[in-house]
Amino acid sequence: MFSLFKQGNLTIVGSNMIDLTSFLNRFPKKGETVYGRDFQQGFGGKGSNQGVVASLLGANVSMVTAVGDDAYGREWLSHYQNENINTDFVKVIENMNSGTAAIWVEEDGDNRIVITPGANEALSAEFVKEAFVKLPPANVVLSQLENPQSAILEGFKRGKEMGAVTLLNPAPADILKEDILEYTDWLLPNETEFAFLAEEAYDLPLDQFVLAIETFANETNTNLVVTIGKKGALLYRPHIDQEVQHLKTTKVTVKDSTGAGDAFCGTFAYGLSVGMDPKSAIELANAIASDSVQKLGTQTSYARGKELERIVAENLK
């Protein structure tokens, strides 16, 4: 049994985006203009979302990222500090805008997102290499695909050198550099992202989808956790699991699914950083992600304080 909010050390080589979110009754058709019901501006980006969740749970989080030399960039530095995230390795890029995400959310909670990476694209492998020389030791290094893969690969190489476990959330879906999986211990896609990586796994019945997970994991020698929305997550570890394990989640009313996958990844990374077994880490991640979809917004939807304590206490094993 773990005590609440045990500390782990987590380094995120990842992104930041200012979320510009419109809440709609329905998405517009081609050439159509529709009215929004509400609008929110907030902090997002997959890497930063995951870092905030891990920090809320008690991890010591260091962000290796890049922001623009603009008002959004200055807001980010202040926000990270407010969330107890180490900003020593946040690079400010001159003459570039910070990243933004234009988000549409329908009444049923479904979303569409367009990201403009801005300074995130300027995060270089050289800067990451220099950062890891000075970074505090990490149990886990976590990345996504909103930054150049060369920077992610460099972070994973340096992380492995220090004995860290490496986790990749391959989102947005993209073709992976051939050697990045060589340095990846855990791959955390959703079902659409996994289908993209496995090429022929689109629209498969569950039994065939499970077989595709086993095949991909065995061929790449990578541990897999595939999130499948309201159905929970699928876990498979080559040479350890006899079959894919399905860890279900609680049925809830969805208001806004934006950032739920990040809540899952950040929680799972936290769990591994404090020595939780993967199955227990997934169960906690399912619970925190399910809670987040019942509220509007991205980071604003993440449980805090007494609410977070309750969720952790109910799901900690």
TrEMBL record:
ATP binds at N190, T227, I228, G229, K230, K231, G232, G261, D262, N286. The active site is at D262 (proton acceptor). K(+) binds at D256, T258, S292, K295, G297, S301. The keyword Cytoplasm applies. One of its GO terms (molecular function) is ATP binding. Its EC number is 2.7.1.229. Its cofactor is Mg(2+). It catalyses: 2-deoxy-D-ribose + ATP = 2-deoxy-D-ribose 5-phosphate + ADP + H(+). The keyword Nucleotide-binding applies. SUPFAM superfamilies: Ribokinase-like. Catalyzes the ATP-dependent phosphorylation of 2-deoxy-D-ribose to 2-deoxy-D-ribose 5-phosphate (dRib-5P), allowing the use of deoxyribose as the sole carbon source. PANTHER family: RIBOKINASE, SUGAR KINASE. This is Deoxyribokinase. The gene is deoK.
